[in-house]
Amino acid sequence: MSSAMIERIVNAVFETLYMVILSGFIGTVLGVAMGVALYITRRGNFLERPLFNRVLSIIVNIGRSVPFIILALAIVPFTQLLVGTFIGNTAAVVPLTLAAIPFVARLVEGALLEVPDGLIEAAQAMGATPQQIIFRVLLPEAAAGIITAITVTFISLIGYSAMAGGIGAGGLGAVAINYGYNRYDTGVMLITVIIMIVMVQGIQTLGDRLVRRAQHR
């Protein structure tokens, strides 16, 4: 393998990390907020808003049901309006983030549903405000489940970023397609796959350690 190809692959690794980390961070922040909103506005909860919850739930379901490739192509005008272009790594962050938000939201909602109702009732009995219940009871108690949700999301984003490489983004996906598949170079394709497997394994290992810490608190 030439030194130019090695350099290209190294650059692709950093491009992939850039897309995954940035979209994962933004998607996590907004997704956790949306997941909390889904939970606290459910019927019977302390900020019950049935209509709002139903509308938000439909939006999340729609976001989760659209395949990433279709989503990325469908929002090209929005991406171009937001970042000034619809190709490149920064442009790919937009659909990656939009794909991550509903995914995180539903997983976070599921984690919050595992929190015992008795803890919330006890907090309310002691006069805790909704904000205190969210940040001192719900999120700490569901921390392990939320970390698992974030871990799964980041791993999924690695796969999505590879798809984005086929529609104008950079990263390992673009290298695999342009220099591996199109040029029938199985060596390049194999290396990109191995690197992505290592990335997934690294994220999963880190996530597992954080989950164990959260469970032992």
From TrEMBL:
Predominant location: membrane
Keywords: Cell membrane, Membrane, Transmembrane, Transmembrane helix, Transport
Pfam families recorded: BPD_transp_1 (PF00528)
Cellular component GO terms held in the UniProt record: plasma membrane
Listed transmembrane segments: 17-39, 51-75, 81-105, 142-167, 187-207
Ranges of residues in domain ABC transmembrane type-1: 13-207
Bilayer topology: Multi-pass membrane protein
Compartments reported by the entry: Cell membrane
Organism domain of life: Bacteria
Gene3D superfamilies (UniProt xref): MetI-like (1.10.3720.10)
Chloroplast is among the record's keywords: no
Gene Ontology biological-process annotations: D-methionine transmembrane transport
NCBIfam families with a match to the protein in the record: PRK10782.1 (NF008049)
Designated name of the protein: D-methionine transport system permease protein
